[in-house]
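Possible regression after last week's pipeline update?

I re-ran a chain I had predicted before the update to compare outputs. Posting the input and the new output here so someone can diff against the archived version. Not blocking, just want to make sure nothing changed silently.
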Amino acid sequence: MGAYHAGSRAVQDLLGVRDRADHVGRSLGQDIKPVAAAFLELQPLIVVGAADPGTGRVWASPVTGRPGFVRATGPRRMSVAGGPPPADPLATALATPGVRAGSIALDPRTRRRMRLNGRLRPTPRGFAVDADQVFSNCPKYIQRRESCAWVPDREPGTPRTAGELDDAQAGFVAAADTFFLATVHAGGADVSHRGGNPGFVRVLSPRELAWPDYPGNAMFLTLGNLRADPRAGLLFLDWASGATLQLTGEAHTEFTGDERTVRFTVTEAVHTPAALPLRWSAPEYSPANP
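New output (post-update):
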């Protein structure tokens, strides 16, 4: 598949960055290079995004394991041992062959991140993704967390589902310095990272969020997807307690001069206390944060 579809091209042209995007787009390939394979094997967490085949809603879900649970098992295949719990809103998608999925492995310890997008393939031990796109991003807006501890005796709480945010969840979002954003288009799916100082995501109401789109690599894969298809899924993590907040809904981008704001409307929220068996250290905020 090509690096860009019509949605990304429209945003690039609107902002006058097509030439820069073409240059940066040369970094997109299908092969998992040895350095990328080595990076994957060190990670205790990846985030996967896709549209649920039944409802059509887009979700971003975390998957954790001891380092080595994610591996390159071929030049264009990433295999994952395990998966989210059966109640996770992406469980059906991850068990469905051929579903378009995006994924991101982000390591706060090194401020490195890698994205791999392709087609899902269920396996006896979990799932695999056959890659259409593999690429790395710069460390901008990634908060450094120096250590990550495995908490084997942490028991996930019961997921709570609602159609809007309660006060505690709104506070969770407002305090976040990081979240993950799953988007889709006719030919694929993608998961990106958004970071900033706490408060960069604003809760406008129990059903509406907004955040600034900070300057990046000019590819506009995420905003291009949203231009083509407004469906989106958000994942917020509590890096200490392991709690997760997954949101699905629709998003659109507002362009005002050189500034861009994304507004997201919540359709459904799933809040799971102690969902992840990981405890990260306190953040050192990225020097790139405005």
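Follow-up from reviewer: compared with the archived run. The chain has six helices and 17 strands. Marking as no regression found.
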